[in-house]
Design a protein that fits this description.
This protein is mostly beta strands and 174 residues long. The protein has no helices and 13 strands. The strands form four sheets. Strands 1-6-5-2 form a four-stranded mixed β-sheet, with no helix packed on it.
Length: 174
Amino acid sequence: GTTPSNAGFDIYKCDIEVPTLGANSPSNGSGSWSIISAPSGGGTFSDSADNTATYSNAAPGVHTLAWTITNGTCPTYVDLVDVYIAGTPTANFSVANDCAGNPINFVDQTTANGTSISSWAWDLTGDGNANTLNQNATYFYNTAGPKQAQLIVTSQGCSDTAVVAFEVYPLPQI
């Protein structure tokens, strides 16, 4: 008879990731992936006959996929798997050059891409640690020179990072 199909466990990924499907390999018959329902036209299988195909170009939302095993004469087996794709924000911010000792303002300009931002983490000193978790930030630099700041934004567990370089000018000598 035909091998019963098992489409594998549900998958949770960010839209910048490519999920690998995990169906069983038929010992008798052949398998194929198909899209049952998906937002915006669905995604693309790397090889619809491969039980461990990748599923790329998937828009955010729930994608219900079917793994069908048939051998042409015996009953066909179908099993479904849901692939949950979360949107990823695009991190961005602005900062203006200023003098040492003056407040430097960092203004969030992140594009949410249909998501709700759940966290902002600013590394303003380059030590890898967040100096503030506010949406916008202000920092006082006591030394002049080239600097860079980093913003990590997260939504539904999906993160993006922006790094922007700027200059802190020395105070004029009197």
